[in-house]
Structures are given as structure tokens and as C-alpha cells.
Design brief:
By secondary structure, the protein is mainly alpha-helical. Helices cover 23% and strands 4% of the residues. It is globular and about 45 Å long.
Amino acid sequence: MYKGIRVLPWEAASVIQKQILNIKNSCWLAAGLFDLDSILDSQLVPLPPCVLSYTAVSALLVGTAIANPFPPSVTVKHDAPTKIAHYTPKFPSGGNYMPSRASRHTTKSPRPLKRETSERVHNTNLANYNANYNANNIKDGVGGGNDSYTMYSGDGSTSAGWPSKSRWVSFEDMFNNYKSTMLNSCAWNGWGPNNSGPEVVSKARLPIDHRFILAVVMQESSGCVRAPTTNYGVRNPGLMQDHNGAASCNDAGKVHNACPSDTIYQMISEGTAGTDDGDGLANCINGAGRDDVAAFYRAARIYNSGSVSSTGQLQDGIATHCYASDIANRLTVWVGAASKCTCDSDPGSCGTKTN
């Protein structure tokens, strides 16, 4: 028998989070089911493919480590983490400056008069990057790989040495690699109680590679639903530290425990599809000016700094110079290995330009 949470549209999340089901099958195609015990077990078994019902659902797997407590009938094992994902706290001027309503845009990437807050990736080569793209596919990469960090610089192209998408790890392995971090990151960073365990995986409708979303979540908050709202010129709340979004479980000194599931969903939605005031990942991909894998690395830089430097080099510009390199490494298995990017601690070592 499997213990799990029934996966339904987020409109019903407040009810679903209280439901524990015992059924004979490991998943329902219509609703999806996952084994709570095995997700928490240190020897995590592969997640059933039907857990991931739509494209961006994988990002919401961070929401499977949310703050609302499990019902007492479910035993939660908190084993000591074997890997701690690398996380660098933000520094002054290190916040996210994703394009705002007032940002300048080129004729190739004009800003609509009304901000799109449910943005999708327009280029089908990027929205469905692989010919066999399937949002339910969690075995969509090369496997677990070896935890390491490679310093990337340049324009994000494979010709400049950046990893092709064929080198990205599978979502299944990426999630498993970060599981310990997601369950412990709040306390590690002094952000309040740890996430208490898996609860809800929702249907999301954003055709963006789920690994890219998860990489940004881990970069921004280590998967802690109570990551504090930061402000270094732009207010950045929530799991994805988005552009002045409404959703947060740690804002102005008020920490929420538990963090409501609809708030978690909104954090992911705002970071992915945009807010009234700023772009999300989809907007950034659309404005990246590329139709190959470089669009993801450029979009990461845009999400962080508001634009790619006039030099075209992703380590140049403002905010976090290592940001795009970090995202590329997270997509190719980096978890706890020492970072080899010194562009923020010693900009001269990378020849970093701030224009």
C-alpha cells in the first residue's frame, strides 16, 4: 500500500493538503500520486512519472517540501543530509533586477503596454526544446553524474564552452540530489523551521523546462519556503526571489509556519510567469535573443541583473556575476562541490566588466 497525497488543481490545494490516501496503485493518471515515505527515505526510489502532470510541475516539487505538517499518521524520517547544496547569501547590490515595467526594451523585444503575468515561452524550440519533450518525463537527462563545478564565462553558447542541453541531468536525479537541502535549508540559513515534508504537487501550465525552474529555485532560496524577502533596490520575495511579487512566507519580519500551499504555488507562478512589476523566467527566455540552449543561460542572467551586459558576456554587468555559471552547473549536477567561480569575490580574476 502506498501513502500519498492526491494531486489535483491548485484550486483545491487547501483541501488536498489534509488528505492522506491509502490505495493499491502507485499513481492515478488523472490525479497523480506519489509515495510520501519513499520521498523522505534517504534511499529515495524513482518518482512515478505521473507525479509530474504538466510542464512546470517539477518546480513545484519544491512545494513537496513545504511547511504544513504531515498528518500524524505519516511517519517522517529526518536523516542527516549527505549533501548540502552550495548556497551563497545575497550581498549588497546582489539582488535580482529582472526587467521591470519601466525597463528599456529593444525593437526585437518590446515591452507590452500591459505586463503579462501569465507569460509563456513563445519560441517552440525553447518551449518544447527536445523533439520528444514530455512534461511527465522525469528521466529527461543524463543521470546523476558527479558533483562538481566548472567555471563558465562568455556568451552562453556551446562554442564558448557552456554545456549543451544533452549534458543536463534528469529532473529525477536533480530533485533527488537536492532533497536533503530542501528538507533542511530553512534551519541551515536561519530562516525559521525546516520544511516538514512533501505535501502537494500541482498541475502547472507553463511550457518551461522544469529543470531550469528548479535550478533557479535552488539558486535563490535553497528550496526553503520561508526564504526571507530581500530588497537591494528591487523587492525579491519567495522561493524564486521574484520581482516584487505578492507571495512570501517571510516578509517584514513575519514568518509563516505553516506556509500555505497556495502561497507556494504563487511563488513559483510569479517567478516563472512574471509579476505586475517584473519579468519571470518565461519573459526572460523570450527576451534572451537566442533559440538554442544559450537562451536559458542568458535568461538566467536577465532574471538576475535585468539584462545581459553590452559586452554579451554573462559574467559582466551588475548583480551576481557568477549567476549564469551557477545555473549551468546546477543543471549539470552541481550540489555541494566547492564553487570555482571567483567573479563575485574577485571580479578582476574574471576580467569582469560592470557596464
